[in-house]
Specification:
CATH class of the largest domain: Alpha Beta
Structural class: alpha/beta
CATH superfamily of the largest domain: Thiolase/Chalcone synthase
Largest sheet: 11 strands, mixed
CATH topology of the largest domain: Peroxisomal Thiolase, Chain A, domain 1
Number of domains: 2
Low-confidence stretches: none
Strand content: 15-25%
Distance between the termini: 14 Å
Order of helices and strands: EEHEEHEHHHHEHEHEHEHEHEHHEEEE
Shape: globular
Mean pLDDT: 92
CATH architecture of the largest domain: 3-Layer(aba) Sandwich
Number of helices: 13
Radius of gyration: 21 Å
Length: about 425
C-alpha cells in the first residue's frame, strides 16, 4: 500500500493551507489567540437599528466594510480574505490546480435594495415582484440583479484565484461549510484534481434574518451582556446567536503535496453525511440521522470510536440541538464520551451558519497543531441531561491527534468530519 493512500486505497487528503475571518479578527493567529483566551466576539448590533427586535446582538464582523452593504458582497469579502490566507500558506501557486467548492448563504434581494427598486419602478400603488425585476434589469440597478444571483460569489472568486472547472456553490443550511470540504475530499479521492479550494462564508446578519430566526424561537434573547448570551450545553441556554465569517482550506492529494514540498497541516480522514426528512427545523427524536452521520465519518476514516480525542461540537446553544448532539455522541462513543473533551466555538463567535463547518474545521486543525482546546465559555449552570466534559470556560492543554467536527443543519442536513494529525 502506498504511503499516500488510505486503507481503502484512496488518495489521502492533506490540508496544506487555511484561512479564517470571524468577529474575533482576521487571520488564524488573531482568532486562535482570542478563542484560547475565552474572549467573545458577540456584541450589540450597530450596523442597523434593532428597535423592537427581540434579539439585538450578534457576532458581526464590523472591521470589514463593503459597498453596497449586503450579504452577497460581505460573504464574498470574507471568503476572499480567508482564501488568500489559505493559498498563501499552501504556497500552491498563482493558478490553483483544482476546483472551488464554496458554501454560501441563500441569496435574495434584501430590504434596502427592495425599497430602492420599488421607488425606481415608478409605481404609485402596490409594487409587485415583477415590478422589482423590471427595475433591477435596467439602468444603474442592473448590477444589483447580477449581485443577487446565486453563484455570483463563486464566479468572482474563481476569477481571482484561478481555480479550474466550474465553481460549485452549495447551501445545505448549517452544515454547508462541512459539505464544501466533503465535496473537495470526494473530488480528490476520485482523482478529478490534485487539489481543491474549499470555503464556507456567511455575512447575512441583517434585520430580516433576525426576525425569521426569532419567529422560529431559535435565537437567544439574553441580550445583556451580549458576550454571555451563547451558552452551549448549559441548562439555561435559550438559543443561538448569529455570527459572521469565512474560512478556507486548501486540500491536496497527499502525494501531490509531498512532491511539491508542501507543509502538511493535517488530514481529512473521513466524512459522514446523513439527511433527515423528519422536519424543516427539528431533529428526528431518536437521533438516528445524527448518529448515522457521526458513525459514517468514523467508518469512512477507517477508525473506531475509541480513536476520537476531541469533539469540536456543533453546539449551537439551542435547547434541542445540544440535547440531540449529546445523545448522538453518547450513542456512538458510549460511556467513554463522558471523558472525551467537547467544546463549542459558537460560545465565542456565534453561529456563523453557512460558514460554521469550515470555520470549525480550521479551529479543529489548529487544536491538533497547538495541543490546546478552546473552551466552551458561559458554562455556569450544568445540564444534568448532558453529562459531558465541555471544557468549561477555560482552554485546556491536551494531546489531540484525532478530532470529530460536527455540523448539523435545519432541514436535517448532517455532516461530520474526521480531522487528524497524520494518517491512522
Amino acid at each position: 500500500m502506498s504511503a499516500y493512500r488510505d486503507r481503502r486505497g484512496r488518495p489521502l487528503v492533506a490540508v496544506t493551507g487555511m484561512g479564517l475571518v470571524t468577529s474575533l479578527g482576521e487571520g488564524k493567529a488573531d482568532n486562535w489567540n482570542a478563542l484560547t483566551a475565552g474572549r467573545s466576539g458577540i456584541h450589540r448590533i450597530r450596523r442597523f437599528s434593532t428597535e423592537n427586535l427581540r434579539t439585538t446582538i450578534a457576532g458581526t464582523v464590523d472591521f470589514i466594510d463593503v459597498e453596497p452593504f449586503c450579504a452577497p458582497l460581505l460573504s464574498q469579502e470574507f471568503a476572499s480574505r480567508a482564501a488568500q490566507e489559505a493559498i498563501a500558506q499552501a504556497g500552491i501557486g498563482a493558478e490553483f490546480p483544482g476546483s472551488l467548492f464554496i458554501a454560501v448563504p441563500p441569496v435574495e434581494i434584501e430590504w434596502p435594495q427592495r425599497i430602492a427598486l420599488a421607488k425606481a419602478s415608478g409605481q404609485s400603488g402596490d409594487v409587485t415582484y415583477d415590478d422589482l425585476l423590471k427595475a433591477a434589469g435596467s439602468g444603474d440597478y442592473r448590477a444589483w440583479h447580477d449581485l443577487f444571483l446565486f453563484g455570483t460569489v463563486a464566479e468572482r472568486l474563481q476569477e481571482r484565484f484561478g481555480t479550474r472547472g466550474s465553481p460549485i456553490s452549495l447551501s445545505t443550511a448549517c452544515s454547508s461549510g462541512a459539505t464544501a470540504i466533503q465535496l473537495g475530499v470526494e473530488a480528490i479521492r476520485r482523482g478529478e484534481a490534485p487539489a481543491a479550494l474549499c470555503i464556507g462564508t456567511d455575512g447575512s446578519v441583517h434585520a430580516e434574518a433576525l426576525i425569521r430566526f426569532s419567529l422560529l424561537s431559535a435565537l437567544s434573547t439574553q441580550n445583556d451582556p451580549p458576550e454571555a448570551a451563547a451558552k452551549p450545553f448549559s441548562k439555561n441556554r435559550d438559543g443561538f446567536v448569529m455570527g459572521e465569517g469565512g474560512a478556507a482550506l486548501v486540500l491536496e492529494d497527499a502525494e501531490h503535496a509531498h512532491a511539491r514540498g508542501a507543509t502538511i497541516l493535517g488530514y481529512v480522514l473521513g466524512c459522514g453525511e446523513k439527511g433527515d426528512g423528519f422536519h424543516r427545523t427539528r431533529s428526528s427524536p431518536d437521533g438516528a440521522p445524527i448518529i448515522a452521520a457521526i458513525q459514517g465519518a468514523i467508518d469512512d476514516a477507517g477508525l473506531s470510536p475509541d480513536a476520537i480525542d476531541y469533539v469540536n461540537a456543533h453546539g449551537t446553544g439551542t435547547p434541542e440541538n445540544d440535547k440531540m448532539e449529546s445523545l448522538g455522541l453518547m450513542q456512538v462513543l458510549g460511556e467513554r464520551m463522558q471523558n472525551v473533551p467537547i467544546s463549542s466555538n459558537k460560545s465565542m463567535i456565534g453561529h456563523t451558519l453557512t460558514a460554521a463547518g469550515a470555520v470549525e474545521a480550521v479551529v479543529s486543525l489548529m487544536t491538533i497543531a497547538e495541543g490546546r482546546i478552546p473552551p466552551t465559555i458561559n458554562y455556569h449552570v450544568p445540564d444534568p441531561a448532558i453529562p459531558l466534559d465541555v471544557v468549561p470556560n477555560e482552554a485546556r492543554d491536551a494531546d489531540v491527534r484525532v478530532v470529530l467536527s460536527n455540523s448539523f443543519g435545519f432541514g436535517g442536513q448532517n455532516t461530520c468530519l474526521i480531522l487528524a494529525a497524520e494518517p491512522v
